[in-house]
Design brief:
This protein is α/β, with parallel strands linked by helices. The chain folds into 3 domains: 56-183 and 348-457, D-Maltodextrin-Binding Protein, domain 2 (3-Layer(aba) Sandwich); 186-236 and 298-343, Periplasmic binding protein-like II (D-Maltodextrin-Binding Protein, domain 2, 3-Layer(aba) Sandwich); 238-289 and 462-530, no CATH class. The protein is 40% helix and 14% strand. The strands form 5 sheets. Strands 8-9-7-10-15 form a 5-stranded mixed beta sheet. Helix 3 (82-97) links the parallel strand 1 and strand 2. The chain is globular.
Amino acid sequence: MKRKASILLLALAMVVSMAACGGNTTSSSGGSTSSTAPSASTGSAAAGTSETATPAENDLRESSLVTLDVVTMASGKEQKDIDLVAAAMNELLEEKFNCNVRLTFLSFATYAEQTTLMLSSGSGADILPVYMIPLPTAANAGQIIPLDDLLDKYGAGIREQIGEYVECGRVGDAIYGITTGRDLASTQGFAMRKDLCDKYDIDYENIKTLDQLKEALVKIKEGEENVWPVAVSAGENIRNWGWDPLGDDMVNLGVLADMAQTTEVVNLFETQQYSDLANTMYEWMNEGLIQSDAVNTTEVSSSLLQAGTAFGYFTNLKPGYAAENTASLGIEIVVSEMIDALASTNNVSRATWTISSGCKNPDAAMKVLNELYTSPELGNLYMYGIEGTHYKVVEAGGSSNGQDIINYADGLDATTSGYRKSGTWLTPNQFIGHTWFGSTADYWDVTRKFNDDALKSKAFGFTYDSANVNNEVTACTNVVAKYHKALMCGALNPAETLPKFNQELKDAGIDRIIAEKQTQLDAWYAEYGA
């Protein structure tokens, strides 16, 4: 069973040892948070593994044991078994690199804030995906390090797995982030509970417009007294509706609008597209179709669906989204695709694995990162946990990539597993991993084809560097924070708010930001554009 018995026994031994003795290995980044799994270094030593190794034994092994803080996001309930999984991962990593990892999972609602604090302090994170923060912002602030030399030395496997997409993590002359092996384009649409679709005869496969969706939402409102038709996640309702944000999808300071088929950079918030969307959401809020506390909630929309208090939510979609979230949430999910697939650099760079400038052992960090991108055994542990404990094999070798078809271990589901399948899209490389039961055996092949076939933005491959307008970006970001999410939740009257919003953006310098983006895009397009 793929070393299951030895991994689980050693993992349990390590946890017992750590509980009895406590870890005494210093983290590479010099800190941790309360939600981290402890290092397995003490348990490993107790099990007879030496903490030192000579380069002659293996030139990839560190001369002394290195512990790295690895941070990512997970939605839903806390992962109580992260210490078990970390210990199992460390059996593999210690043997090959003389490295351990300490795992941290942060919630969606606090991910951007907490990772910003970690990067600013240089503590608590050695390896992490930069997400919901523009990659150039972290690079220009000196919070993450250039990866080119490390990729040349230890990242050949990453380059092989990611291919030309690795260039989308470039800021200026250096690569700072490595995208994940996942869907790298996205359609936009609505995910919802199938039980309520069946109950109210909602033809979700043929919902293509907001007006058609509204008809379904009205049925839910009229028939389900205690169910919100539209739920939101931590105050965010709609992130994108068919524009290319050119690198800053949380604030959208200068975009290519209307499926990004021209190279003219515009102010999204002055477009008819945005005005129409804001007005629709305002009408829906007034009609009771959107969660009333949408702006202030810290909950995740999927949690409300699990609790039975919401029907659906807007989201980025991809192949297999419904099956994946059905498995993750434990309720049957269906989707309506409403905006065609668009591939932009932002799709690629919105979630990129980086090495913090606070990391004291960047060589070791790159070795571990390369292993996460290339080793199915390590990658599956990180994504799905321990075989027999958190998942079971349904069909050995049944996936088209040679991996297994898996499902929750007997007696477990999405609500009871101690290492829940959640947020796997943000792990380094899903393409080398197992396929979850309910998805097609060729799911990863279909996803690669989805990436290849998506409509490409005219700026696909372009990476914007905000260094020349950092002050304006800071000022405009503060303005966007006041209005944008609230408008997309329907909490503000667009007729009154949009003129004020756009005037404050102009006062804060958005025109200079747009001009800078346009200059950089024009120069890039002249050399690389089709």
